[in-house]
Amino acid sequence: MDLNDARGLARALNELLKNAGQAIEGARETPELIARVTGHLGCELNHVVNVVSTFPGWEHVNLQRGVDAYLAAHSPGAEWFGISGHGREHEEFVNMLASLARGWERYEPGAVDYATAAIGPDETTEVISLGLVLTRTPDGGPVVVGLRGSQDHHGPQCQVVVLAPDRPSATGTRDEIERLTREHDIYRGQVLSFMWSEHRGNDLVTFLPRPDLPADQVILPEGVLAGIERHIVGIAEHAVRLREHGQHLKRGLLLHGPPGTGKTHTVRYLLGRMRECTVIIVTGTAIRYVAQAAGLARRLQPAILVLEDVDLVAQDRGLDETGNPLLFSLLDAMDGVGADADVTFVLTTNRAEVLERALADRPGRVDLAVEIPKPDEDGRAALMRLYARGLTLRADLGPIVAKTEGATASFFKELLRRAVLDALRAEDATPVVTDEHLGRALEDMLDERESLTRSLLGSGEHVSADRPFGDGYGYGGPPAPSPGASTSAFVGFYEP
Predict the structure, then answer these.
(1) More confident residue, 314 or 17
(2) Which SMART domains match (predicted)?
(3) Where are the beta strands (DSSP E) in 411-467?
(4) Domains of the chain, with CATH numbers?
(5) Is the dihedral of CA 120, 122, 123, 129 positive or negative?
(6) Are 195 and 293 in contact (CB under 8 A)?
(7) Exposed/middle/buried for residue 443 (C-beta within 10 Å: 0-12, 13-18, 19+)
(8) Residue 444 contacts by C-beta under 8 Å, 6 or more apart in sequence?
């Protein structure tokens, strides 16, 4: 066979194989999954338009609520279906359909995949992690909507997918779902914590119960709490009229002072006082997501964004996701929320001097700085009475108050507990706390061996017989230039 004959034979064989493939393709029944999608859309698979919107994983429950609201409005009673087949969790919906059409994979309609998501401190709901539903556009055209939850290989994100016969139908449906997602935002009015979890990538946002703390349980020097309320609560109460008169609403509050003096306690009071506000608390390593937290606060205004122990942020040489120092990220986030946004930034610190230069160089982020000092004599007496509520107390508090200059609220709380424990050891019935019980408890806590305990309670480290609580700043004197420890803990928001 010469070269020309060989070429002719090759062309003939190629044509034969092509015709055979087309014959086989034409004879093969359309897979059920493709038939369900294209039958509803009224077009061939290669004409289907695919539009995808991606959200952070912690928005999954909101996306589900938005899709549910869309279906209720445009196709009540529509039923979801899932996809069964190997590797479905690794493929996009449109890729699965394309692979199925080419005969590369076997996918079939199957059960919907669900996951559990929180909708409150003690409530959960089911969200679809992989499923499709046949529905209609706002003007009545056919579309298919899909939901995907977070997958390990995709990272902490979720998606809404719209398949349609044309682009306007797909984008119009997507836009309406996104609008309804914002309208039905489950986070609005809640208390949320931004804290990163390495266990599950989408566990960035956690619901917390809202504190309910009466003003008479906030022991501060006269006028301090009233000044805070006037600035923070007052602006919220007159937000509409302030806007009408061209005044900005965004405000920044810095609470500073020694550990254990009541900064967190004061914040708890504000959160309970402003019940109409969404609260976002950023703690620990989640500070690197402060930009997202600020964006959420802006979206859900009126809102309060709480950042505890920001002196640790100033000392942290770590970088955020964009490569900027964390303190700069915090200041940029405060800038990024527009002046007309009803958002309050509440910062707490044990070491204001660490932040003073940065805040002074970029003025306007904090418009009220309030010192929360160690309690004076009247404050110590008030704290003793507060923590003695519900007890049978037959003791003169004067000597205890006189001996505890420089002590903090945390110290008095522990003092009363030890006194009650001492009384319980002596009585079987309801204990009566006397001078003897309080005296022994105080003597125990003033023992040299308890110096570390006093320090951890924020009541001084360096002690002497006449100055058991040091020099009044919490660590025996003014803060040293070396990195100090911010000891207030996030769980303090929810201690009784």
Answers:
(1) 17
(2) AAA
(3) 432-434
(4) 29-183 (no CATH), 191-371 (3.40.50.300), 377-471 (1.10.8.60)
(5) positive
(6) no
(7) exposed
(8) 418, 450
